[in-house]
């Protein structure tokens, strides 16, 4: 904190505070002026008319109070004799008021403590506001943190040396383990503005909600890794993700000369491999988005081959037929491929093998219904194997 020396403050200390904590120097000067006025009220009374001004260029302090000019001084805190008043204003008479300079260095202990407390509280409030502004600008983006420690199953992470946050166990990718000082990329889901302490409860710091499992973490990683996405040539249309296992990303190119999937994969897989490494081996299926729902669904179910896709009348559900030998591949282990495809496309998907569809067409067994991302019953797998 910048300290007053005689009638001058150390502006260099305020500049350091601005650089280190993001606290505006002019705001701090205003807070110090208010603190001095409050200190005057302790020494000179609540009704005293005090004014403080700090020169923003030199740091020189100008602190004054108004005193009543009287023939006989009864209260030196609020009154001044005619003789002394005329050293300030040669024409002063009893009944007038004059403005008297005050030296902050001569404040009493209580007054000085009041000013110090106000300045310290102002620093905390400004720091809280600066912290919120900084991280609110990074909401829905990626930041790099330094792991500090585990708190139970949760991870305490320092973000940009500006704030601590808690990464809950459920937001850590399954199988990931970290040690102190490990660097970790986090997606900022939302930032809540800090509140002042109330009855000793709470820290007042802003609350930063972070995740490693959020689908948009994958999106932001691709945006950073793939120049064509940053330039707007390639768009990420949708993402479905089961963190730590597999993600599907639907992409589209606004330039017919640019292959969206190829741009995301990179030469010899360099771009996608960098993301897979960051996510500790999570598999990435990069899908070509298509405005035709049937084509999009066919692409989403890859690597399985699709014989046909039929949409229902309202365009919310699809019946997909695959070769018999491709059924398990289309469904995926524990239904994962079908589940991710349904989330990616936004359609309910019913997957049947050719022989199953033929039996349905012949009326040999009843239709079991369609599957969305929450219902695995129609995937034709055993109930015990459904996730």
> What does the overall shape look like?
rod-shaped
The span between the termini is 57 Å
- How do the strands of the widest beta sheet line up side by side? 9-8-7-10-11
Helix content: 25-40%
Could you tell me the strand content as a percent range? 25-35%
Uncertain spans, ≥5 residues at pLDDT below 50? Answer: 197-203, 369-387
Mean pLDDT: 84
What does this structure look like?
31% of the residues are buried. The protein starts with a strand and ends in a 26-residue tail after the last helix. Helix 9 (293-300) runs antiparallel to helix 11 (336-345). Helix content is 32%, strand content 26%. With 387 residues, the chain is an alpha+beta fold. It is rod-shaped. Strand 15 (308-311) and strand 16 (317-322) form a beta hairpin. It has a five-stranded antiparallel beta sheet with strand order 9-8-7-10-11, with helices on one face. It has twelve helices and 17 strands. The longest helix is centred in the first third of the chain and has 28 residues, at 109-136.
């Amino acid at each position: 904190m910048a300290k007053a020396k005689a009638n001058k403050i150390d502006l260099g200390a305020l500049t350091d505070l601005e650089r280190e904590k993001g606290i505006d120097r002019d705001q701090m000067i205003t807070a110090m002026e208010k603190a001095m006025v409050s200190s005057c009220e302790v020494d000179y009374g609540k009704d005293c008319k005090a004014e403080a001004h700090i020169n923003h260029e030199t740091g020189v302090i100008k602190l004054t109070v108004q005193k009543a000019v009287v023939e006989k001084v009864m209260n030196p805190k609020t009154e001044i004799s005619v003789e002394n008043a005329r050293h300030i204003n040669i024409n002063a008479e009893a009944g007038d008021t004059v403005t008297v300079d005050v030296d902050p260095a001569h404040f009493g202990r209580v007054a000085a403590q009041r000013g110090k407390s106000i300045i310290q509280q102002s620093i905390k409030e400004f720091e809280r506001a600066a912290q919120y502004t900084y991280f609110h600008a990074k909401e829905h983006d990626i930041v790099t943190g330094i792991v500090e420690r585990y708190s139970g199953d949760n991870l305490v992470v320092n973000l940009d040396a500006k704030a601590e946050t808690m990464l809950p166990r459920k937001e850590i990718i399954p199988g990931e383990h970290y040690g102190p000082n490990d660097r970790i990329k986090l997606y900022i889901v939302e930032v809540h503005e800090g509140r002042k302490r109330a009855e000793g409860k709470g820290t007042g710091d802003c609350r930063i909600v972070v995740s490693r499992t959020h689908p948009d973490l994958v999106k932001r990683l691709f945006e950073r890794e793939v120049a064509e996405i940053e330039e707007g040539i390639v768009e990420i249309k949708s993402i479905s993700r089961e963190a730590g296992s597999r993600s599907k990303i639907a992409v589209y190119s606004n330039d017919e000369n640019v292959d969206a999937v190829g741009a995301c994969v990179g030469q010899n897989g360099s771009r996608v491999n960098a993301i897979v490494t960051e996510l500790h081996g999570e598999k990435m299926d990069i899908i070509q988005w298509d405005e035709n729902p049937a084509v999009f669904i066919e692409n989403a179910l890859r690597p399985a081959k699709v014989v046909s896709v039929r949409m229902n009348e309202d365009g919310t559900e699809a019946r997909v037929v695959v070769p018999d030998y491709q059924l398990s591949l289309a469904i995926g282990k524990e239904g994962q491929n079908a589940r991710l495809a349904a989330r990616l496309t936004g359609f309910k998907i019913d997957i049947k093998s050719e022989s199953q569809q033929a039996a349905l067409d012949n009326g040999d067994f009843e239709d079991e219904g369609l599957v969305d991302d929450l219902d695995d019953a129609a995937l034709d797998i055993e109930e015990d194997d459904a996730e």
